[in-house]
From TrEMBL:
Belongs to the FGGY kinase family. Residues 312-466 form the Carbohydrate kinase FGGY C-terminal domain. This is Glycerol kinase 5. PANTHER family: GLYCEROL KINASE (PTHR10196:SF69), SUGAR KINASE (PTHR10196). It holds the Pfam family FGGY_N. GO terms for cellular component: cytosol.
Length: 515
């Protein structure tokens, strides 16, 4: 092995798995390790994680991957951390001891609190003033504030709920005894021996406590909802100097040079550096992210701008829409009704026919988001007949996911005036050729799938390399994916219009039914 070769370490923390992957400087993967973690579901709607369990899993995965790679920690030029976003915890400022579990982004116990916050007279007065100001000035910040409705996805909502449930935590926060952090902040804090309390702009912007336009914590929100700002972490670039791991972690200090949210990391890993570039991650849900450039854009129908990443003080913004069920829907098809239990099997069934024979499946089993945002909606099948076969249903399911993805793409184009340049995909469900061909046919855009479907860790490693000066800029970096398979649109304009017309009829029927 070249004695001068440098390596990059990426940590990827999802809901139940923490992975550690080492990449060579040329982008080739050298070794990987993982640990599983548990979810704590102590009551209806609760989804929590044990902070210490998460950190110990990170340490174990990191130590194992270094052992597998057979390289000393001194050879790691930079380490990056990517995490599921908007999952937070509070810990004691002096001892570093967690004062509660991590409350997951998918925890819905704060639903009533979100309802009350949205009904607040003060908040609604602010929204009206912001909407009027946004209309007059065309300020995206005011426009975004004017359309914002709180949901349990928002850290702000769950934090307010937690303070109501635990008045002792509210008092401790007011005294300045607590620190707040999402998962990457907790990992950074522990890895650096409780020395560094920081996050990056992508994770901060996903909390709803951060103003992505002014690039600072939202003092107005914090005052309005009594959130002590001194417990919030420092916000840095996504590729930056975050300190060094304590020698007790891996045997020698390793520079931590990148923090980023998971979907943003995948967007970066695909090399989606130009406005109009789209990344679709197909996992348990489908996340559609579009690079909107150096200025935040607002969808007037409910998509709030996020920061994809920040390099040298310059942010790149994105808009994100999601389909709540994709992989979870496929799990249900297998475990619930015995149709198919993996994307590969579902794809095989669906590929046995060229059409759905009139069957339309609307994949809204966990509610519908953009642009309707109705959590009461449920999955619906239209067009069943006595000649319907499971292969038709299988194709209808995949086409339904594709239609919802295209709904988001068309909505973003309409709301922002942007044009989509290219679409790249990743995630386990993207292994389905039928699904990707359907997205290409229904959107009219070429779809590209990399030779590996895990781009989150790659993007994190790429950012870590930038933070460690392995590469000087994104132009030198390019995309870390080796090659892409291309799915070209096959429908002509009339075929596409007819398919979309029939879909919209079914979707409008469902929306009215669950109104």
């Amino acid at each position: 092995m070249d004695s001068e070769q440098r390596f990059l370490l990426a940590f990827d923390a999802g809901g139940t798995t923490i992975r550690a992957i080492i990449y060579k400087e040329d982008g080739d993967e050298l070794a990987r390790a993982f640990r599983t973690t548990s979810e704590i579901r102590s009551e209806q709607g609760a989804v929590e994680h044990d902070p210490e369990e998460l950190f110990q899993a990170l340490l174990a995965a990191g130590r194992e991957v270094l052992s597998k790679a057979a390289i000393p920690p001194e050879k790691i030029a930079g380490a990056g951390i990517t995490v599921q976003r908007a999952t937070f915890c509070l810990w004691d400022k002096k001892s570093g001891k967690p004062q509660c579990n991590f409350i997951s982004w998918s925890d819905v116990r704060a639903g009533d609190k979100a309802f009350k916050m949205n009904r607040s007279c003060i908040w609604n007065g602010m929204k009206i003033a912001a909407a009027v100001g946004g209309f007059i000035t065309r300020s995206p910040m005011l426009t975004a504030t004017g359309m914002l409705s709180f949901v349990t996805d928002h850290v702000l909502v769950r934090l307010c709920w937690l303070f109501e449930q635990r008045p002792d935590l509210r008092q401790a926060a007011k005294r300045g005894d607590l620190l707040f952090g999402t998962i990457e902040t907790w990992f950074l804090y522990r890895l650096t021996g409780n020395r560094v309390h920081a996050t990056d702009t992508s994770n901060a912007a996903a909390t709803s406590l951060y103003n992505p336009f002014e690039m600072k914590w939202n003092a107005i929100f914090c005052r309005l909802f009594s959130i002590p700002m001194r417990m919030l972490p420092e916000v840095k670039n996504s590729a930056d100097q975050f300190g060094f791991t304590d020698p007790s972690c891996f045997g020698a200090p390793i520079p931590i040079t990148a923090l980023i949210g998971d979907q943003m990391a995948a967007l970066f890993g695909h090399g989606c550096f130009t406005p109009g570039d789209v990344k679709i991650s197909q996992g348990s849900g489908s996340f559609v992210d579009i690079n909107v450039g150096r200025r935040g854009k607002v969808s007037r129908r409910g998509l709030f701008p996020l920061i994809a990443w920040t390099l040298r003080g310059k942010p790149v913004y994105m808009l994100e829409g999601s389909v709540a069920t994709a992989g979870r829907l496929i799990d249900w098809l297998g475990n619930g009704i015995g149709l198919s239990d993996t994307p590969a099997v579902l794809n095989d069934f669906a590929s046995q026919c060229d059409d759905t024979e009139g069957v339309v499946f609307v994949p809204t089993a966990a509610g519908i988001r953009f642009p309707y945002f109705n959590p009461k909606a449920r999955g619906t099948i239209f067009g069943l007949s006595l000649s319907t076969h499971r292969r038709h249903v299988a194709r209808a399911v995949l086409e339904g996911i594709a239609h919802r993805v295209v709904d988001i793409l068309e909505g973003i184009e309409k709301d922002t005036g942007m044009s989509i340049r290219r679409i790249k995909v990743d995630g386990g469900v993207s292994r389905s050729n039928v699904l990707l061909q359907a997205i290409a046919d229904l959107s009219g855009h070429e779809v590209e799938r990399p030779d590996e479907t895990d781009m989150t860790a790659r993007g994190t490693a790429a950012l870590a390399g930038l933070g460690a000066a392995v590469w000087k800029d994104v132009e030198e970096l390019g995309s870390m994916a080796r090659s892409y398979e291309h799915f070209h649109p096959r429908f002509d304009h009339n075929q596409r219009r007819e398919k979309r017309r029939r879909w919209n009829e079914a979707l409008n029927t469902l929306v009215k039914f669950y109104h």
